[in-house]
Write a structure and sequence with these properties.
The complex is a heterodimer of chains A (about 130) and B (about 110).
Chain A lengths: L2 E5 L3 E2 L5 E8 L9 E7 L6 E7 L4 E3 L7 E6 L4 E6 L8 E13 L2 E9 L3 E5 L2
Parallel strand pairs in A: 2-11
Antiparallel strand pairs in A: 1-3, 3-8, 4-5, 4-9, 5-6, 7-8, 9-10, 9-11
Chain B lengths: L8 E4 L5 E6 L10 E6 L6 E4 L13 E6 L2 E6 L8 E9 L4 E4 L3 E5 L1
Parallel strand pairs in B: 1-9
Antiparallel strand pairs in B: 2-6, 3-4, 3-7, 5-6, 7-8, 7-9
Classes of the chains: A mainly beta (about 130), B mainly beta (about 110).
């Protein structure tokens, strides 16, 4: 059974770069047709899609964050990572990594997150 | 402001049935599939429904999903106190090229 675990600093200073890693266990990050996704949730608020990377290397980022986000995969370590630059207090949130399935089915596109990490809290503060 | 619209809260008694609505547009729900997630207090979201009405292995059939036009509905029957959680709908938005979510609905089992 695939499991995901986020890791990284819990405190980041304003204007610096937030860096998180998601370690995949119980399966290979390179096997199957999955997207590897990052989602965040500010305290007491809803879910926000950050972006995803496909096993082929293609990426998709939320336009609202695109200029600051980079998602990458290190298949040798079975990990994928998130970098968010020039952070502000508005980037304070719980960050989740997730495995996602997505494709066209009968002309409609499906995309859902079927395995989630437990989340890691990142606070942006000096 | 979330792209998909959900009621902030719903409540019902144990054993009863509740429905949670999710309203969108032609660029998301109207032309793409809907998924639903359950977030228990202090926990990560968990996939409940995908492809509008399919349940992952291990999700009881008390949970159901449906879609009509640009709206979707999550149904939960035989409510248990353990069902108290926040529920989120999600869908791909073809215009924005992102996954969009509802603002979440807090279920209280009285």
């Amino acid at each position: 059974q695939v499991q995901l675990q986020e890791s990284g600093p819990g405190l980041v200073k304003p204007s610096q770069t937030l860096s998180l890693t998601c370690t995949v266990s119980g399966g290979s990050i390179s096997s199957g047709s999955y997207y590897w996704t990052w989602i965040r949730q500010p305290a007491g608020k809803g879910l926000e899609y950050i972006g995803r990377m496909y096993t082929s290397g293609s990426t998709n980022y939320n336009p609202s964050l695109k200029s600051r986000v980079t998602i990458s995969i290190d298949a040798s370590k079975n990990q994928f990572s998130l970098k968010l630059s020039s952070v502000t207090a508005a980037d304070t949130a719980v960050y989740y990594c997730a495995r996602s399935a997505g494709s066209y089915l009968s002309y409609y596109f499906y995309y859902y997150m079927d395995v989630w990490g437990k989340g890691t809290t990142v606070t942006v503060s000096s | 402001q979330s792209v998909l619209t959900q009621p902030p809260s719903v409540s019902a008694a144990p054993g009863q049935k509740v429905t949670i609505s999710c309203s969108g547009s032609s660029s998301n729900i109207g032309n793409n599939y809907v998924s639903w997630y359950q977030q228990l207090p202090g926990s990560a979201p968990k996939l409940l429904i995908y492809d509008n009405n399919k349940r992952p292995s291990g999700i009881p059939d008390r949970f159901s999903g449906s879609k009509s036009g640009t709206s979707a509905t999550l149904g939960i029957s035989g409510l248990l106190t353990g069902d108290e959680a926040d529920y989120y709908c999600g869908s791909w938005d073809s215009s924005l090229s992102v996954v969009v979510f509802g603002g979440g609905t807090k279920l209280t089992v009285l």
